[in-house]
Protein backbone atom coordinates (compact mmCIF):
# COMPACT_ATOMS: atom_id res chain seq x y z
CA UNK A 1 0.00 0.00 0.00
CA UNK A 2 2.61 2.50 1.11
CA UNK A 3 4.68 1.86 -2.01
CA UNK A 4 1.57 2.46 -4.18
CA UNK A 5 1.19 5.82 -2.53
CA UNK A 6 4.85 6.61 -3.08
CA UNK A 7 4.51 5.72 -6.78
CA UNK A 8 1.38 7.83 -7.09
CA UNK A 9 3.07 10.73 -5.34
CA UNK A 10 6.12 10.44 -7.61
CA UNK A 11 3.94 10.36 -10.70
CA UNK A 12 1.85 13.29 -9.49
CA UNK A 13 4.86 15.50 -8.83
CA UNK A 14 6.42 14.45 -12.13
CA UNK A 15 3.33 15.60 -14.04
CA UNK A 16 3.19 18.79 -12.00
CA UNK A 17 6.82 19.54 -12.83
CA UNK A 18 5.98 19.20 -16.53
CA UNK A 19 3.07 21.59 -16.03
CA UNK A 20 5.37 23.97 -14.18
CA UNK A 21 8.06 23.69 -16.88
CA UNK A 22 5.51 24.58 -19.56
CA UNK A 23 4.69 27.60 -17.39
CA UNK A 24 8.32 28.68 -17.31
CA UNK A 25 8.62 28.21 -21.08
CA UNK A 26 5.69 30.51 -21.50
CA UNK A 27 7.19 33.06 -19.13
CA UNK A 28 10.41 33.23 -21.19
CA UNK A 29 8.31 33.71 -24.31
CA UNK A 30 6.41 36.51 -22.59
CA UNK A 31 9.59 38.12 -21.32
CA UNK A 32 10.99 38.03 -24.84
CA UNK A 33 7.75 39.48 -26.20
CA UNK A 34 8.03 42.46 -23.85
CA UNK A 35 11.78 42.98 -24.08
CA UNK A 36 13.06 41.90 -27.50
CA UNK A 37 10.38 40.90 -29.97
CA UNK A 38 9.99 42.97 -33.14
CA UNK A 39 6.44 44.28 -33.67
CA UNK A 40 5.65 41.92 -36.51
CA UNK A 41 6.26 38.91 -34.25
CA UNK A 42 3.03 39.44 -32.33
CA UNK A 43 0.84 36.97 -34.19
CA UNK A 44 3.46 34.22 -34.25
CA UNK A 45 4.07 34.73 -30.55
CA UNK A 46 0.36 34.61 -29.74
CA UNK A 47 0.20 31.19 -31.44
CA UNK A 48 3.25 29.95 -29.56
CA UNK A 49 1.87 31.10 -26.23
CA UNK A 50 -1.58 29.66 -26.91
CA UNK A 51 -0.07 26.25 -27.70
CA UNK A 52 2.15 26.19 -24.62
CA UNK A 53 -0.60 27.30 -22.26
CA UNK A 54 -3.02 24.80 -23.82
CA UNK A 55 -0.49 22.00 -23.21
CA UNK A 56 0.03 23.17 -19.64
CA UNK A 57 -3.71 23.19 -18.99
CA UNK A 58 -4.04 19.66 -20.43
CA UNK A 59 -1.22 18.38 -18.21
CA UNK A 60 -2.76 19.76 -15.05
CA UNK A 61 -6.38 18.84 -15.71
CA UNK A 62 -6.04 15.27 -17.04
CA UNK A 63 -8.21 12.57 -15.49
CA UNK A 64 -5.02 10.82 -14.38
CA UNK A 65 -4.00 13.81 -12.22
CA UNK A 66 -7.42 13.69 -10.53
CA UNK A 67 -6.95 9.97 -9.77
CA UNK A 68 -3.42 10.49 -8.42
CA UNK A 69 -4.60 13.28 -6.14
CA UNK A 70 -7.38 11.03 -4.81
CA UNK A 71 -4.95 8.17 -4.18
CA UNK A 72 -2.49 10.42 -2.37
CA UNK A 73 -5.24 12.02 -0.29
CA UNK A 74 -6.80 8.69 0.64
CA UNK A 75 -3.63 7.56 2.38
CA UNK A 76 -2.20 10.86 3.49
CA UNK A 77 -0.60 9.20 6.51
CA UNK A 78 1.91 7.43 4.28
CA UNK A 79 3.29 10.76 3.18
CA UNK A 80 5.50 13.17 5.07
CA UNK A 81 4.35 16.65 6.07
CA UNK A 82 6.02 18.40 3.14
CA UNK A 83 4.63 15.87 0.68
CA UNK A 84 1.13 16.30 2.05
CA UNK A 85 1.49 20.04 1.58
CA UNK A 86 2.49 19.45 -2.04
CA UNK A 87 -0.58 17.25 -2.63
CA UNK A 88 -2.83 19.85 -0.97
CA UNK A 89 -1.50 22.64 -3.20
CA UNK A 90 -1.53 20.60 -6.42
CA UNK A 91 -5.10 19.67 -5.56
CA UNK A 92 -5.97 23.34 -5.10
CA UNK A 93 -4.59 24.19 -8.54
CA UNK A 94 -6.32 21.18 -10.09
CA UNK A 95 -9.67 22.12 -8.53
CA UNK A 96 -9.50 25.68 -9.72
CA UNK A 97 -8.53 24.56 -13.22
CA UNK A 98 -11.20 21.86 -13.54
CA UNK A 99 -14.17 23.46 -11.82
CA UNK A 100 -14.81 25.94 -14.59
CA UNK A 101 -16.81 24.62 -17.58
CA UNK A 102 -15.01 24.92 -20.92
CA UNK A 103 -17.74 27.19 -22.39
CA UNK A 104 -17.26 29.62 -19.52
CA UNK A 105 -13.47 29.58 -19.95
CA UNK A 106 -13.91 30.48 -23.60
CA UNK A 107 -16.63 33.07 -23.00
CA UNK A 108 -14.45 34.76 -20.37
CA UNK A 109 -11.41 34.77 -22.58
CA UNK A 110 -13.40 36.37 -25.42
CA UNK A 111 -15.04 38.92 -23.17
CA UNK A 112 -11.72 39.84 -21.54
CA UNK A 113 -10.22 40.60 -24.96
CA UNK A 114 -13.23 42.69 -25.98
CA UNK A 115 -13.35 44.58 -22.69
CA UNK A 116 -9.61 45.19 -22.71
CA UNK A 117 -9.78 46.46 -26.26
CA UNK A 118 -12.57 48.95 -25.61
CA UNK A 119 -10.94 49.99 -22.31
CA UNK A 120 -7.87 51.32 -24.12
CA UNK A 121 -10.02 53.56 -26.31
CA UNK A 122 -12.43 54.56 -23.54
CA UNK A 123 -9.50 55.51 -21.30
CA UNK A 124 -8.01 57.65 -24.02
CA UNK A 125 -11.33 59.45 -24.52
CA UNK A 126 -12.17 59.44 -20.79
CA UNK A 127 -15.52 57.95 -21.76
CA UNK A 128 -16.80 55.51 -19.15
CA UNK A 129 -20.11 55.09 -20.99
CA UNK A 130 -18.22 53.50 -23.86
CA UNK A 131 -16.62 50.96 -21.50
CA UNK A 132 -19.61 50.18 -19.27
CA UNK A 133 -21.60 47.74 -21.50
CA UNK A 134 -18.56 45.46 -22.03
CA UNK A 135 -17.57 45.68 -18.37
CA UNK A 136 -21.10 44.70 -17.35
CA UNK A 137 -20.88 41.56 -19.45
CA UNK A 138 -17.48 40.76 -17.98
CA UNK A 139 -18.75 41.23 -14.42
CA UNK A 140 -21.67 38.88 -15.15
CA UNK A 141 -19.33 36.19 -16.50
CA UNK A 142 -16.98 36.70 -13.55
CA UNK A 143 -19.93 36.14 -11.19
CA UNK A 144 -20.48 32.83 -12.97
CA UNK A 145 -16.79 32.07 -12.51
CA UNK A 146 -17.11 32.67 -8.77
CA UNK A 147 -20.12 30.31 -8.71
CA UNK A 148 -18.09 27.67 -10.54
CA UNK A 149 -15.24 27.94 -8.02
CA UNK A 150 -17.77 27.77 -5.19
CA UNK A 151 -18.03 30.10 -2.21
CA UNK A 152 -19.72 30.62 1.13
CA UNK A 153 -22.39 33.06 -0.03
CA UNK A 154 -19.93 35.84 -0.89
CA UNK A 155 -18.86 35.41 -4.54
CA UNK A 156 -16.03 37.95 -4.22
CA UNK A 157 -14.30 35.61 -1.73
CA UNK A 158 -13.82 33.08 -4.53
CA UNK A 159 -12.14 35.76 -6.65
CA UNK A 160 -9.82 37.05 -3.91
CA UNK A 161 -8.79 33.47 -3.21
CA UNK A 162 -7.13 33.25 -6.61
CA UNK A 163 -4.51 35.81 -5.56
CA UNK A 164 -4.49 35.55 -1.80
CA UNK A 165 -5.52 32.14 -0.51
CA UNK A 166 -7.27 32.44 2.83
CA UNK A 167 -8.09 36.15 2.56
CA UNK A 168 -11.79 37.02 2.74
CA UNK A 169 -14.01 40.06 2.33
CA UNK A 170 -14.51 40.10 6.11
CA UNK A 171 -10.81 39.91 7.03
CA UNK A 172 -9.81 42.48 4.41
CA UNK A 173 -12.62 44.87 5.35
CA UNK A 174 -11.50 44.72 8.98
CA UNK A 175 -7.84 45.40 8.17
CA UNK A 176 -8.58 48.10 5.63
CA UNK A 177 -10.97 49.90 8.00
CA UNK A 178 -8.20 49.92 10.62
CA UNK A 179 -5.84 51.37 8.04
CA UNK A 180 -8.15 54.15 6.89
CA UNK A 181 -8.53 55.43 10.44
CA UNK A 182 -4.78 55.91 10.70
CA UNK A 183 -3.67 56.68 7.15
CA UNK A 184 -6.22 59.31 6.13
CA UNK A 185 -5.43 61.74 9.00
CA UNK A 186 -1.70 60.93 8.92
CA UNK A 187 -1.49 61.77 5.21
CA UNK A 188 -3.40 64.98 5.89
CA UNK A 189 -0.89 65.98 8.58
CA UNK A 190 2.10 65.14 6.41
CA UNK A 191 0.71 67.12 3.46
CA UNK A 192 0.10 70.13 5.71
CA UNK A 193 3.50 69.85 7.39
CA UNK A 194 5.96 72.74 7.13
CA UNK A 195 8.65 70.30 6.07
CA UNK A 196 8.64 70.23 2.30
CA UNK A 197 10.80 68.20 -0.01
CA UNK A 198 12.83 70.43 -2.34
CA UNK A 199 13.51 68.80 -5.64
CA UNK A 200 13.18 69.57 -9.31
CA UNK A 201 14.51 66.50 -11.08
CA UNK A 202 12.67 67.44 -14.27
CA UNK A 203 15.12 70.31 -14.89
CA UNK A 204 18.01 67.92 -15.45
CA UNK A 205 18.58 64.95 -17.68
CA UNK A 206 19.49 61.69 -15.94
CA UNK A 207 20.45 59.48 -18.86
CA UNK A 208 18.97 55.99 -19.04
CA UNK A 209 22.48 54.51 -19.50
CA UNK A 210 23.70 56.00 -16.24
CA UNK A 211 20.52 55.00 -14.39
CA UNK A 212 20.86 51.45 -15.64
CA UNK A 213 24.53 51.23 -14.65
CA UNK A 214 23.69 52.50 -11.17
CA UNK A 215 20.75 50.07 -10.85
CA UNK A 216 22.86 47.10 -11.96
CA UNK A 217 25.52 47.86 -9.35
CA UNK A 218 22.93 48.43 -6.66
CA UNK A 219 21.13 45.10 -7.01
CA UNK A 220 24.37 43.21 -7.15
CA UNK A 221 25.60 44.85 -3.93
CA UNK A 222 22.31 44.03 -2.22
CA UNK A 223 22.61 40.37 -3.10
CA UNK A 224 20.75 39.71 -6.34
CA UNK A 225 22.60 36.86 -8.06
CA UNK A 226 23.55 38.04 -11.54
CA UNK A 227 24.55 34.53 -12.51
CA UNK A 228 20.95 33.57 -11.86
CA UNK A 229 19.13 36.57 -13.23
CA UNK A 230 19.28 39.74 -15.31
CA UNK A 231 17.85 43.23 -15.67
CA UNK A 232 16.34 44.57 -18.90
CA UNK A 233 14.03 47.29 -20.15
CA UNK A 234 10.31 46.99 -20.92
CA UNK A 235 7.31 49.32 -21.09
CA UNK A 236 5.68 47.79 -18.01
CA UNK A 237 8.17 46.73 -15.32
CA UNK A 238 7.90 43.14 -14.06
CA UNK A 239 9.77 40.19 -12.60
CA UNK A 240 9.40 36.71 -14.04
CA UNK A 241 11.20 33.39 -14.10
CA UNK A 242 12.50 31.41 -11.16
CA UNK A 243 15.45 29.77 -9.52
CA UNK A 244 18.56 30.03 -11.71
CA UNK A 245 16.96 32.44 -14.16
CA UNK A 246 15.08 35.44 -12.80
CA UNK A 247 14.23 38.23 -15.25
CA UNK A 248 13.74 41.75 -13.94
CA UNK A 249 12.63 44.65 -16.09
CA UNK A 250 12.23 48.35 -15.60
CA UNK A 251 11.70 51.54 -17.61
CA UNK A 252 13.68 54.78 -17.48
CA UNK A 253 12.33 58.30 -17.23
CA UNK A 254 15.26 60.63 -17.86
CA UNK A 255 13.64 63.41 -15.86
CA UNK A 256 12.58 61.33 -12.85
CA UNK A 257 15.44 58.99 -11.92
CA UNK A 258 13.78 57.89 -8.68
CA UNK A 259 11.15 55.99 -10.69
CA UNK A 260 13.60 53.49 -12.16
CA UNK A 261 15.80 53.33 -9.05
CA UNK A 262 12.88 52.30 -6.82
CA UNK A 263 11.28 50.31 -9.63
CA UNK A 264 14.46 48.24 -9.90
CA UNK A 265 14.71 47.74 -6.13
CA UNK A 266 11.04 46.70 -6.10
CA UNK A 267 11.41 44.11 -8.86
CA UNK A 268 14.65 42.92 -7.28
CA UNK A 269 12.67 42.21 -4.09
CA UNK A 270 10.41 39.94 -6.13
CA UNK A 271 13.50 38.43 -7.75
CA UNK A 272 15.24 37.70 -4.44
CA UNK A 273 12.16 35.75 -3.35
CA UNK A 274 12.30 33.66 -6.52
CA UNK A 275 16.05 33.10 -6.12
CA UNK A 276 15.50 31.99 -2.53
CA UNK A 277 13.05 29.12 -2.99
CA UNK A 278 14.12 25.56 -2.16
CA UNK A 279 16.17 23.89 -4.89
CA UNK A 280 15.26 20.31 -3.97
CA UNK A 281 11.55 20.71 -4.62
CA UNK A 282 11.85 23.02 -7.61
CA UNK A 283 8.95 22.65 -10.04
CA UNK A 284 6.48 21.73 -7.29
CA UNK A 285 4.29 24.07 -5.19
CA UNK A 286 6.81 23.83 -2.34
CA UNK A 287 9.11 26.01 -4.42
CA UNK A 288 6.48 28.44 -5.66
CA UNK A 289 5.74 31.81 -4.11
CA UNK A 290 3.00 31.59 -1.49
CA UNK A 291 0.69 34.32 -2.73
CA UNK A 292 0.62 37.65 -4.55
CA UNK A 293 0.49 39.41 -1.20
CA UNK A 294 3.56 37.68 0.20
CA UNK A 295 5.40 38.29 -3.07
CA UNK A 296 4.52 41.96 -2.76
CA UNK A 297 5.67 42.01 0.88
CA UNK A 298 9.16 41.18 -0.36
CA UNK A 299 9.28 43.78 -3.13
CA UNK A 300 7.85 46.48 -0.89
CA UNK A 301 10.17 45.73 1.99
CA UNK A 302 13.22 46.23 -0.21
CA UNK A 303 11.75 49.19 -2.03
CA UNK A 304 10.19 51.16 0.82
CA UNK A 305 11.44 49.94 4.19
CA UNK A 306 15.06 49.56 3.14
CA UNK A 307 15.36 51.46 -0.16
CA UNK A 308 13.68 54.69 0.98
CA UNK A 309 15.50 54.88 4.31
CA UNK A 310 18.17 57.39 5.31
CA UNK A 311 20.45 54.51 6.38
CA UNK A 312 20.35 53.02 2.91
CA UNK A 313 21.23 56.30 1.23
CA UNK A 314 23.97 57.13 3.71
CA UNK A 315 25.62 54.15 2.08
CA UNK A 316 24.57 54.63 -1.55
CA UNK A 317 24.11 58.39 -2.00
CA UNK A 318 27.84 58.98 -2.52
CA UNK A 319 27.71 56.44 -5.33
CA UNK A 320 24.61 58.04 -6.79
CA UNK A 321 26.25 61.46 -6.79
CA UNK A 322 29.40 60.03 -8.32
CA UNK A 323 27.20 59.09 -11.30
CA UNK A 324 24.91 62.15 -11.22
CA UNK A 325 27.13 64.78 -9.60
CA UNK A 326 25.95 67.69 -11.75
CA UNK A 327 22.35 66.60 -11.94
CA UNK A 328 22.06 66.36 -8.14
CA UNK A 329 24.28 69.34 -7.33
CA UNK A 330 23.26 71.06 -4.12
CA UNK A 331 21.12 68.18 -2.93
CA UNK A 332 22.14 66.62 0.39
CA UNK A 333 21.42 63.02 1.30
CA UNK A 334 18.67 64.25 3.64
CA UNK A 335 17.11 66.27 0.80
CA UNK A 336 17.22 63.19 -1.41
CA UNK A 337 15.55 60.98 1.20
CA UNK A 338 12.81 63.57 1.76
CA UNK A 339 12.34 63.87 -2.01
CA UNK A 340 11.91 60.12 -2.46
CA UNK A 341 9.42 60.09 0.43
CA UNK A 342 7.41 63.02 -0.87
CA UNK A 343 3.72 62.63 0.01
CA UNK A 344 0.95 64.22 -2.00
CA UNK A 345 -2.70 63.93 -2.91
CA UNK A 346 -2.46 62.00 -6.13
CA UNK A 347 -5.03 60.63 -8.52
CA UNK A 348 -3.02 57.85 -10.10
CA UNK A 349 -2.32 54.66 -8.16
CA UNK A 350 0.93 53.73 -9.90
CA UNK A 351 2.38 57.15 -9.11
CA UNK A 352 1.20 57.21 -5.49
CA UNK A 353 3.66 57.48 -2.59
CA UNK A 354 4.16 54.87 0.11
CA UNK A 355 1.79 56.52 2.60
CA UNK A 356 -1.24 57.13 0.37
CA UNK A 357 -0.85 54.02 -1.79
CA UNK A 358 -3.13 51.88 0.35
CA UNK A 359 -5.95 54.40 0.07
CA UNK A 360 -5.94 53.84 -3.68
CA UNK A 361 -6.14 50.09 -3.06
CA UNK A 362 -8.81 50.30 -0.39
CA UNK A 363 -11.15 52.26 -2.62
CA UNK A 364 -10.74 49.69 -5.40
CA UNK A 365 -11.33 46.83 -2.98
CA UNK A 366 -14.47 48.46 -1.62
CA UNK A 367 -15.81 49.02 -5.12
CA UNK A 368 -15.15 45.41 -6.17
CA UNK A 369 -16.63 44.09 -2.93
CA UNK A 370 -19.81 46.14 -3.34
CA UNK A 371 -20.06 45.41 -7.05
CA UNK A 372 -19.98 41.63 -6.53
CA UNK A 373 -22.35 41.89 -3.59
CA UNK A 374 -24.85 43.72 -5.83
CA UNK A 375 -24.72 46.84 -3.62
CA UNK A 376 -23.60 48.98 -6.55
CA UNK A 377 -23.77 48.43 -10.29
CA UNK A 378 -21.28 49.08 -13.09
CA UNK A 379 -23.00 52.35 -14.02
CA UNK A 380 -22.38 53.66 -10.45
CA UNK A 381 -18.61 53.22 -10.75
CA UNK A 382 -17.54 56.75 -11.80
CA UNK A 383 -19.69 58.37 -9.12
CA UNK A 384 -18.59 55.99 -6.34
CA UNK A 385 -14.95 56.25 -7.45
CA UNK A 386 -14.98 60.05 -7.25
CA UNK A 387 -16.77 60.07 -3.88
CA UNK A 388 -14.23 57.72 -2.37
CA UNK A 389 -11.13 59.42 -3.71
CA UNK A 390 -12.56 62.70 -2.43
CA UNK A 391 -13.19 61.17 1.01
CA UNK A 392 -9.80 59.43 1.34
CA UNK A 393 -7.48 61.79 -0.50
CA UNK A 394 -9.36 65.07 -0.66
CA UNK A 395 -9.05 65.38 -4.41
CA UNK A 396 -11.39 65.02 -7.38
CA UNK A 397 -10.41 63.55 -10.75
CA UNK A 398 -10.87 65.99 -13.63
CA UNK A 399 -12.30 63.17 -15.76
CA UNK A 400 -12.95 59.40 -15.84
CA UNK A 401 -9.90 58.60 -17.98
CA UNK A 402 -6.22 58.18 -17.08
CA UNK A 403 -6.66 60.03 -13.81
CA UNK A 404 -10.01 58.50 -12.90
CA UNK A 405 -11.97 55.29 -12.81
CA UNK A 406 -10.54 54.04 -16.13
CA UNK A 407 -6.85 54.33 -15.15
CA UNK A 408 -6.05 50.68 -14.30
CA UNK A 409 -5.87 47.73 -16.65
CA UNK A 410 -7.07 45.18 -14.04
CA UNK A 411 -10.86 45.38 -14.48
CA UNK A 412 -10.61 45.38 -18.26
CA UNK A 413 -8.78 42.04 -18.04
CA UNK A 414 -11.23 40.60 -15.51
CA UNK A 415 -8.64 40.54 -12.68
CA UNK A 416 -11.17 41.21 -9.92
CA UNK A 417 -9.73 40.38 -6.49
CA UNK A 418 -6.15 41.25 -7.46
CA UNK A 419 -5.93 44.76 -5.94
CA UNK A 420 -6.13 43.82 -2.24
CA UNK A 421 -2.91 41.79 -2.51
CA UNK A 422 -0.88 45.00 -2.93
CA UNK A 423 -1.94 46.20 0.50
CA UNK A 424 -1.72 42.73 2.01
CA UNK A 425 1.91 42.93 0.89
CA UNK A 426 2.42 46.22 2.73
CA UNK A 427 0.84 44.84 5.89
CA UNK A 428 2.86 41.62 5.79
CA UNK A 429 6.05 43.58 5.15
CA UNK A 430 5.38 45.71 8.25
CA UNK A 431 4.97 42.68 10.43
CA UNK A 432 8.03 40.85 9.07
CA UNK A 433 10.08 44.03 9.33
CA UNK A 434 9.29 44.50 13.01
CA UNK A 435 10.22 40.92 13.87
CA UNK A 436 13.37 41.11 11.80
CA UNK A 437 14.39 44.22 13.77
CA UNK A 438 13.73 42.44 17.05
CA UNK A 439 15.81 39.46 15.94
CA UNK A 440 18.58 41.68 14.58
CA UNK A 441 19.02 44.82 16.70
CA UNK A 442 21.93 46.02 14.58
CA UNK A 443 19.96 45.98 11.35
CA UNK A 444 19.99 49.75 10.78
CA UNK A 445 23.76 49.85 11.22
CA UNK A 446 24.12 47.01 8.74
CA UNK A 447 22.01 48.83 6.16
CA UNK A 448 24.12 51.93 6.63
CA UNK A 449 27.23 49.89 5.91
CA UNK A 450 25.62 48.30 2.86
CA UNK A 451 25.58 44.86 4.47
CA UNK A 452 22.46 42.97 3.47
CA UNK A 453 23.51 39.35 3.85
CA UNK A 454 21.86 38.89 7.27
CA UNK A 455 18.62 40.53 6.16
CA UNK A 456 18.46 38.34 3.09
CA UNK A 457 19.30 35.26 5.17
CA UNK A 458 16.44 36.09 7.58
CA UNK A 459 13.97 36.42 4.71
CA UNK A 460 15.25 33.21 3.12
CA UNK A 461 14.88 31.34 6.39
CA UNK A 462 11.44 32.64 7.38
CA UNK A 463 9.74 33.24 4.02
CA UNK A 464 11.48 32.28 0.78
CA UNK A 465 12.45 28.67 1.35
CA UNK A 466 8.95 27.59 2.44
CA UNK A 467 7.18 28.30 -0.85
CA UNK A 468 3.55 27.21 -0.55
CA UNK A 469 4.21 24.74 2.26
CA UNK A 470 2.21 26.66 4.88
CA UNK A 471 -0.89 28.82 4.73
CA UNK A 472 -0.27 32.55 4.83
CA UNK A 473 -1.38 32.86 8.43
CA UNK A 474 0.72 29.86 9.50
CA UNK A 475 3.76 31.32 7.75
CA UNK A 476 3.21 34.67 9.46
CA UNK A 477 2.73 32.95 12.83
CA UNK A 478 5.94 30.98 12.41
CA UNK A 479 7.91 34.00 11.23
CA UNK A 480 6.49 36.62 13.60
CA UNK A 481 4.52 34.83 16.31
CA UNK A 482 1.09 36.08 15.20
CA UNK A 483 -1.31 35.97 12.25
CA UNK A 484 -1.39 38.82 9.76
CA UNK A 485 -2.56 42.09 11.29
CA UNK A 486 -2.19 45.82 10.62
CA UNK A 487 -0.67 46.96 13.90
CA UNK A 488 3.04 46.74 13.05
CA UNK A 489 2.55 48.23 9.62
CA UNK A 490 0.58 51.19 10.93
CA UNK A 491 3.10 51.96 13.67
CA UNK A 492 5.89 51.78 11.09
CA UNK A 493 4.06 54.35 8.92
CA UNK A 494 3.36 56.63 11.87
CA UNK A 495 6.93 56.51 13.11
CA UNK A 496 8.53 56.93 9.72
CA UNK A 497 6.42 59.82 8.48
CA UNK A 498 6.21 61.60 11.85
CA UNK A 499 9.96 61.61 12.01
CA UNK A 500 10.55 62.63 8.37
CA UNK A 501 7.97 65.40 8.50
CA UNK A 502 8.59 66.43 12.14
CA UNK A 503 4.97 65.96 13.18
ZN1 LIG B 1 5.34 44.14 -7.20
Notes on the protein architecture:
The chain has 2 domains: 2-153, no CATH class; 169-500, Neurolysin, domain 3 (Orthogonal Bundle), CATH 1.10.1370. The chain has 20 helices and 3 strands. The chain has helices spanning 2-35, 42-61, 63-74, 81-98, 102-125, 128-149, 155-163, 169-192, 208-222, 257-275, 292-306, 310-323, 333-339, 357-372, 381-393, 420-439, 443-448, 453-462, 472-480, 487-500, and strands at 229-233, 239-242, 245-250. A 3-stranded mixed beta sheet has the order 1-3-2, sandwiched between helices. A hairpin with a 2-residue loop joins strand 2 (239-242) and strand 3. The protein is globular and about 70 Å long. Bound molecules: zinc ion. The site of zinc ion has 4 residues, from helix 10 and helix 11.
Keywords:
single chain; mainly alpha; 2 domains; about 65% helix; globular; binds zinc ion
Compact overview of the structure:
This protein has 20 helices and 3 strands.
Topology of this protein?
Layout: H1 2-35, H2 42-61, H3 63-74, H4 81-98, H5 102-125, H6 128-149, H7 155-163, H8 169-192, H9 208-222, E1 229-233, E2 239-242, E3 245-250, H10 257-275, H11 292-306, H12 310-323, H13 333-339, H14 357-372, H15 381-393, H16 420-439, H17 443-448, H18 453-462, H19 472-480, H20 487-500
Parallel strand pairs: 1-3
Antiparallel strand pairs: 2-3
The protein binds zinc ion.
The site of zinc ion (ZN) has 4 residues, from helix 10 and helix 11.
Amino acid sequence: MASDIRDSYQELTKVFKQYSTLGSISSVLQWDMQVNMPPKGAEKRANELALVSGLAHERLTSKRVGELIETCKSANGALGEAERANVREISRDYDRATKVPQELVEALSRQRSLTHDVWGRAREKADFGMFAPELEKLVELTKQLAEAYGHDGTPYNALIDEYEAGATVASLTKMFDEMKVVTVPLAEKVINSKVKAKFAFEKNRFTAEKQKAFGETLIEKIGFDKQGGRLDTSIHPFCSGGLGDVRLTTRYNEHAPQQAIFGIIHEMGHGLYEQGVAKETYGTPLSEALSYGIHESQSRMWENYIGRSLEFWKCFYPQLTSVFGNELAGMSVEDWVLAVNHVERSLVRVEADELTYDLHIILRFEIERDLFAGVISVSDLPKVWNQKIEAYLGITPPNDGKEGVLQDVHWSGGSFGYFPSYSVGNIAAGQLWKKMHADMPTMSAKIEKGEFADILAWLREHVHRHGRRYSRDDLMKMATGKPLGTQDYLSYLEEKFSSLYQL
